[in-house]
Amino acid sequence: MLRAFTALIMLAAIMLSILTLPPLFSVAYTGNNQSLRGSLTVLAVMGKGANTRGIPLKLSMEITRGEGKIYLSLTSLAGEDFQASVKLSILIGTIVAGKDYTNYNYYVELEPHVNSISGPSAGAAITTLTIALLNGLNINESIAITGVMLPDITIGPVGGLPKKIEAASKAGVKIVIIPSGQLIVRNPITNATINITSIAREYGLNVMEASNLYEILKILGGRYGYLKNTSVITLKLSSIPVFKNTVSKWINEFNRTYMKLSNKVSIELNLCRDKALSNIAIKITKEAKERFNEALRELYEDELYASVSDMFSAVISLTTAYWLLKGCIDGWDTLNVLISNVSSEVHKALNTFETITRELNSAYSISINKLSLGVEVLKRVYEMNETFNSVMLRYKSIKYSNMSSVLNLIDDLSYTYWRADSVLKWCELFNIVEDATDPHVKLSTLRRVVELLTYYSKVTLDYMGTLIKVRDTYINDLYELVNKASEIAETNPIYSLSLSMDAIAKISALLSASYSVNMTKKALTLRAISLNLASSALSQGFKPLVTLTYIERGDSLLKQDPYLSIYFYDLALTNTMWYLMLIQAHRVKPAITMIAQPYQYIPISVLIMVLITCITLVIGFILGYGYCRRSRMKA
What we know:
The protein is an alpha/beta fold. Helix content is 64%, strand content 11%. The chain is globular.
C-alpha cells in the first residue's frame, strides 16, 4: 500500500508541474509576436545630367504585431512620392500575401543614409520584401530589384538604369531585376540607345525582366510566383447558365429597341429641313450601325457581354439622333418629354438602389457572388446620378443656338436613360443569382475590409498625385469619387465598396497607361493576371461572373483602344483581388489557438522528456498498485 501511495504522490507532482509550466503558453504567445526582419538591395541614382551616379542601398524591414503604422528610419528628407510609394507598396504586399494590413506595424530603413530620397523606384522591392517576410520566403541576397510598384501589381519603368547596373556591381549583386521593356533605353542627354544587357555583362551581372509582381516572385522562387498559361484557363461567361439566359434576353430587348429607333430616325430624317443637323444625325446613325454590327459579330462568337455592351452603345447613339431630329422639327420644348422619360427611369433605378443597399447593409452575412453583383448595380447608379445631376444643371441654362451644347445635352440625357435601364437589368441578375452554397462574408468583416479599401484608394490617389502633377477634370473627378467613398464607408459600406473599386481601377489604368512603353503588351499582362485571379476565385467557390464580363469587354476593345481595354482589365483585376481578400478575411482564424497549438514553440527535446517521464510514472504506478493488491490477497 505504501508503494502505491508513493506512486500516486509522484504522479500528482509531475502532473502539477506540467500544468504549471509557465513557458508553455507564454512561448506560444511570444512566438506569434516575434518580429520579422529581412533586407534587399535596391538601386538608386543621385545627381543630375552628366553628374548622375548610381548607388546601391540596403532596404531593411521589420514587421511586428501592431495596428497598420509605417515608420521610416531616415536621416535625410523623404519626398512625397517616396513616402506614398512606401505606403502603397506595403499595402499591396499584405494583400498579395493574404494578410490583414492593420494587424502589423512596419519599420523601413534605407542604408547608407543619403542627403535626400525621392521617387517610387524602390516600390517593387518594398512589396517583394513585405511578401517574403509575411510568408517565410527566403530572399537571395545576390539579387537587386528596381521598379515602380503600380496599384494593379504591375511594374512600372524607372530611370538611370545604366548607372544602377554599375551600382549593383559594387554591391556584390549577381542578378538585377528590372521592369519589362527596359533592356534597351535611351541616354537622356544624347538620345542614343543603350543596351542594358551588354552593360550588365561587362560587370558580370545577369539582368532579368519582370512585368508584374508575380514574375518577381517567380524569380525568387515564391509560391505566389506562378501565373498559369492563359491558354489553359477556359473560363467563359457563356458557360454560366444564369448569366447566359439573362444576357441573351437583354440582347433580344436591345435588338428590338434598335430596330424601332432605326425606323423612327428614318422617318424624322425625311421630315427634317435643317441640312447641317440632318448630317449630324446621319453621322451618329452610321456610328450606331457600325457598333450594332460589331455586337452581332460578338454574339456570333459567343461573347455575350461584349455584344450587349455594344448594343447598349448603339441604342444610346440612336436615341440621341432621334431626339436631336425631333427637337429640330417639333421645337426644342419637346425635350421636356425626354427629360420626363429620363426622370422616371432614374426614379425607378434609385428605388432599386435603396432596396439593394438596405438588403445588403442589414444582412448578418452576405454571399460574395450576390455582393459582387450588388456592387455592379451601385456602380451604375453612381454613373447615372452623376450624369443626370450634371444634365439638369446645364438644361436650365442651355442655349439652343449653340448646337454643340444641345448635342452634348441630348447625348447625356440618352446615356442617363439607358444607364438607368442597365441598373434595372443588373438588379434582375442580382435577384436571381443563387447564394445557398456560395462563400459568405459577415457584414462586420466586410466593414473592416471596406475601411482598408477606402484607405488603399486614398493612398493610391496620393501616389498618383506625386507622379502625375497635372490636375485636370478627370483627376479632380477621381478625388471626388474617393472622397465620396470615404464619407459613406461607415453608413453604406456596400456603396463605398463599389465606388472605391471603380476609383482604384481608373487610377491603375491611368498610371499603367502613363508608365507603359507598349500599351497592348501592358493590357495583355493585366489580362493574364485577371484570368489567373478568376481561376483562383473559382477554386474557392466564388463565381467570378463580373470579372469575366470585364475581361470579355477588354478583349473586344484591345485592338481598337488598348487604353480602354487596360481599364476593363484593371476593373476585372481589382474586383477579384478584393473579393478574394474578403474570402480570406472571413476564413482567418485567431493568431493564437491555445487548445490546438499550446506546444507549437516548445523544443521537441523538452516535449519528449516530459512524455517519457509521464509514461514511466504511469507504468510505475500500475506496477506498484498491482504489487500491493497481490500482497493483500496473500495476507
